[in-house]
């Protein structure tokens, strides 16, 4: 048993659903922190299914309106949960979304909240075309750790982990740690 991994990610080793042979992972954080890049790379190196909730909602038109102030559709969270329920039951799913409090707690074995320094995040969001209130609100979300606090109140605290996501080396380190965690989880639970 890799005690280093157990120390790094305590509380994440128990199978939440008896039929799961592979763990489910939630990647969350403020827009622009690198969830999609990390999630796609994890999926490329494993046989896990990567689901970007924004893309899923767009494809299935899982919206309940449009937010004029932010210039984006409003997610229908209940329909998203219904759409994902069956996919989550077998395990081996990486879910990527900037919010997390509406996903059932039972779905995830581990939750990673990616964090980025504001100067780095500002540049990333600006390059995506974020401006004005939308840009400022997302920066404040990161400053005040809104997504981390949401994750801590939505899931068992010992499965929620913050990961830095500022430079390419952070992504490589995060990727290596998560792959090692997956491998160990599967050894321990199969």
From TrEMBL:
Which class of enzymes does this protein belong to? Answer: transferase
User: Catalytic activity, per the record?
Assistant: ATP + H2O = ADP + phosphate + H(+); AMP + ATP = 2 ADP
Does this entry carry the keyword Cytoplasm?
Answer: yes
Cell compartment(s), UniProt: Cytoplasm; Nucleus, Nucleoplasm; Nucleus, Cajal body
The EC number(s) attached to this protein equal 2.7.4.3
Question: Cross-referenced InterPro entries, in alphabetical order?
Answer: Adenyl_kinase_AK6 (IPR020618), P-loop_NTPase (IPR027417)
GO cellular component terms listed in the entry, alphabetical order: Cajal body; centrosome; cytoplasm; nuclear speck
Q: Where does ATP bind?
A: 32, 34-37, 128
Major localization class: cytoplasm
Q: Which GO terms describe its biological process?
A: ribosomal small subunit biogenesis; rRNA processing
Molecular functions per Gene Ontology: AMP kinase activity; ATP binding; ATP hydrolysis activity
Q: Which CDD domains match?
A: AAA
Query: Which UniProt keywords are present, listed alphabetically?
Result: ATP-binding, Cytoplasm, Kinase, Nucleotide-binding, Nucleus, Ribosome biogenesis, rRNA processing, Transferase
Sum up the protein's function in the record's words.
Answer: Broad-specificity nucleoside monophosphate (NMP) kinase that catalyzes the reversible transfer of the terminal phosphate group between nucleoside triphosphates and monophosphates. Has also ATPase activity. Involved in the late cytoplasmic maturation steps of the 40S ribosomal particles, specifically 18S rRNA maturation. While NMP activity is not required for ribosome maturation, ATPase activity is. Associates transiently with small ribosomal subunit protein uS11. ATP hydrolysis breaks the interaction with uS11.
Question: Which PANTHER family does the UniProt entry name for this protein?
Answer: ADENYLATE KINASE ISOENZYME 6, POS9-ACTIVATING FACTOR FAP7-RELATED
Q: How does it assemble?
A: Monomer and homodimer. Interacts with small ribosomal subunit protein uS11. Not a structural component of 43S pre-ribosomes, but transiently interacts with them by binding to uS11. Interacts with COIL (via C-terminus).
This protein is called Adenylate kinase isoenzyme 6
Write down the species. Podarcis muralis
């Amino acid at each position: 048993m890799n005690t280093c991994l157990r120390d790094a990610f305590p509380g994440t080793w128990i199978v939440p659903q008896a039929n799961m042979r592979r763990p489910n992972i939630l990647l969350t954080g403020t827009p622009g922190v690198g969830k999609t890049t990390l999630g796609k790379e994890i999926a490329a190196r494993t046989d896990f299914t990567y689901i970007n909730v924004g893309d899923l909602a767009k494809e299935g038109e899982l919206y309940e309106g449009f937010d004029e102030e932010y210039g984006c559709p409003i997610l229908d969270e209940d329909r998203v949960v219904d759409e994902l329920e069956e996919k989550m039951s077998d395990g081996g799913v990486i879910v990527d979304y900037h919010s997390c409090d509406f996903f059932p707690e039972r779905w995830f074995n581990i939750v990673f909240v990616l964090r980025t320094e504001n100067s780095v995040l500002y540049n990333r969001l600006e390059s995506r075309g974020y401006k004005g209130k939308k840009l400022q609100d997302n920066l404040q979300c990161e400053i005040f750790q809104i997504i981390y606090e949401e994750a801590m109140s939505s899931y068992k605290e010992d499965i929620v982990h913050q990961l830095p996501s500022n430079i390419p080396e952070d992504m490589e380190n995060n990727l290596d740690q998560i792959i090692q965690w997956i491998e160990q989880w599967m050894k321990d639970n199969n």
